[in-house]
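B., you asked whether I could sanity-check this one before it goes into the benchmark set. Here's the sequence:
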Amino acid sequence: MEILNQFSQFSPNMEAQGASSIPQPSQDAHEKARQQAENQETAKNGMISQILDQAAMQRLSNLAVAKPEKAQMVEAALINMARRGQLSGKMTDDGLKALMERVSAQTQKATSVKFDRRRNELDSDEELDL
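And here's what the prediction gave me:
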């Protein structure tokens, strides 16, 4: 009976409305999320500019253009190092190079080519082709 009462509460116009009756996230929520992401990006860039010297910043910018994923990993490593107190003063270009090499070594996938030569039962080494 309770289910029937719930169905009777729907008006016939609700079917015609279709998807418009489903609550949609407001534009304010999207704007708020975008603003929050922008604020986080600004804070991250501010921290990185305090961590790196000019030459290292230029190198990181070049890396971000060429390989954005790797640049994000290096930025995350820099921020973690700064939060842990592992950095003393601004990191130089040489220090950033070393960090980039460590990140590359950790993420480098070993690629190998493997030849699988399977022999047919029809083709035997014992037979001679004449």
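One thing to flag: Residues 27-51 form the longest helix (25 residues). Otherwise nothing jumped out at me.
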